[in-house]
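User: Can you help me understand a structure? I only have the sequence.
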Amino acid sequence: MSAFLAKRLLIGLVTLIVASIVVFAVLEIVPGDPALLMLGMNATPEALEALRSQMGLDQSIPVRYFNWIGGMLMGDFGRSWTYSSPVLDLIIERGIVSLPLAILSLFLSTAIAIPVGIFAASRRGTIADSASMGAAQIGVAIPNFWFALLLVYLFAVWLRVLPAGGFPGWGAGIWPALKALIMPSLALALPQAAILARVTRSAMLEVLGEDYIRTARAKGMSRRTVLWRHALRNAMIPVLTILGLQFAFLLAGTIIIENVFYLPGLGRLVFQAITQRDLIVVEGVVMLLVASVVVVNLVVDILYAAVDPRLRVKA
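Assistant: Let's start by predicting it. Here is the structure, written out as tokens:
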């Protein structure tokens, strides 16, 4: 098991290094001058040069890259040029919105998708199966911002039970804050639940055709026990793969949803930083998201080994 973990950690470290180079290089070739954007078109050359020096833009690209990486390793993500605030403080301030949103969305997606996938697989070829997968196909095809608009009309405009947007902050109480996250999390969760339900159904159908499932049924085990105790565990490998990918998407792909609901999260922070060409903020947030993806994939790999111990030997 230790060799398995060491190999996965090494892969994650290499991924982070390559991602940091790509992120830094891509943002370096983006056209535009941050100093000119901040000071305006009427700024004097002397003022522009002084601001570029203050921002470190007069240094060579390799020096700026290693300064950036070294700072992050020491917990210093730099200082935002737009907000005049440490980037790490901005990430923490916005992350307490985006992280609960992603976790709640993943919980809702899993709670919806796995029962639906098992239900459809256990009734293969029936009307219930066709209806479930038809609904899942619609969920895959429709973008999440369209779901967001429908949810706003239904729960905020018509029923008036949930706020249409904004975030009161956790200081206002857990329930008011969660109420503000319910519709955004549903809008994020429904398309992901549709994908996960289809994957769960396919994995369950493959497992249900195995000999040990027929043997379990022949021994007199109930259909429910066979489905949930034997079939589901052996079908979890592809399901865990999709769950890992979905959490990364939910954490990194909230830009549209956070702007629809006016949530002060990481997605909206990145959007604002890109429009203002605050590159140090974009670099810090993107690298944090990459690190979160690496950690989630590591957790998924560990869960693989827990579900199927044979993978430890193969690794």
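Now, to help you interpret it: The first helix runs from residue 2 to 28. The chain has a mean pLDDT of 82. Let me know which part you'd like to focus on.
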